[in-house]
Amino acid sequence: AGEGSGPAPRDGTGPPAPERVLFPPTFSVSEIKNKQRRHFMFLRWKQQQRKEKLALKKKRKKEREALGDKAPPKAVPKTIENQRVYDETTVDPNDEEVAFDEATDEFAPYFNRQTVPKILITTSDRPRGRTVRFCEQLATVIPNSHVYYRRGLALKRIIPQCIARDFTDLIVINEDRKIPNGLVLSHLPDGPTAHFRMSSVRLRKEIKRKGKEPTEHVPEVILNNFTTRLGHSIGRMFAALFPHDPQFIGRQVATFHNQRDYIFFRFHRYIFKSEKKVGIQELGPRFTLKLRSLQKGTFDSKFGEYEWIHKRREMDTSRRKFHL
């Protein structure tokens, strides 16, 4: 036999020798001392795990097809979302107290169509190019929004000027090391003010398979999974940024999707391929928000009264506990 071949059968007619097991049951990558070899073996092990998982999935699918109607129901996989710890502040749509609060809160004039959204978008002092481009693209997503670049002017001086010019909301984009990393949203004239940490910012040119530039049509707004009283307030803040009546002819949709207290923003356009098939095309920009605080009234970092503050050591003790 040639060098490296497996053991041949004794009589020459039996079945071929089984393949040598690549990884023994007690295999541990951490025992390998060489870093490059350890990384290579880890990738091989992950590849084998994927193959075994796919083979098991195909086997179960064939078994279900063979059983037909007698097949048992599919097991629901356990996820962090469906094992979420119940929150006593979860909003019931039929709750009279919630309905009364909505009719009397700071956003009631908007939802009663008494005010038209007018947004001022500004930045931290002396913004860099990436933050400037992000603000310009955000202004094309939110109708009736205006971009103003600060030059050392304090927010406490900007807010009275915004109120005098009938602005309904103020958005401040903060940056660190030339990257946008924070967003302050203040509803005018009486608040509230929310402070978010911003991450995963992608401008239009950085999005693969992006569509053409958005049009000036008023987009639809989708708010997903804002179920608690706190989440309900945040959702109403986002809704109050957009005019009431979307122009469906533009086929544009702005989505705020809350998942495990991370708010993912996406801006898409519908594409009708046929009478039955509809595709979506991302327009950008995209970003992710994490609520850090909710403050009563307009922005006041020293003497403001806070409704909610994210305290990591106290609030993040369980992975299945969410606040929005």
From TrEMBL:
The protein's organism comes out as: Hylia prasina (green hylia)
- Which positions carry the signal peptide feature in this UniProt record? none
Q: Where in the cell is it found?
A: Nucleus, Nucleolus
Q: Name one GO biological process term.
A: maturation of LSU-rRNA
Q: What is this protein called?
A: Ribosome production factor 1
> Where's it mainly located?
nucleus
GO MF terms held by the record? rRNA primary transcript binding
Q: Basic and acidic residues bias: where?
A: 63-72
Q: Where exactly are the transmembrane stretches of this chain?
A: none
Q: Where is the Brix domain?
A: 117-300
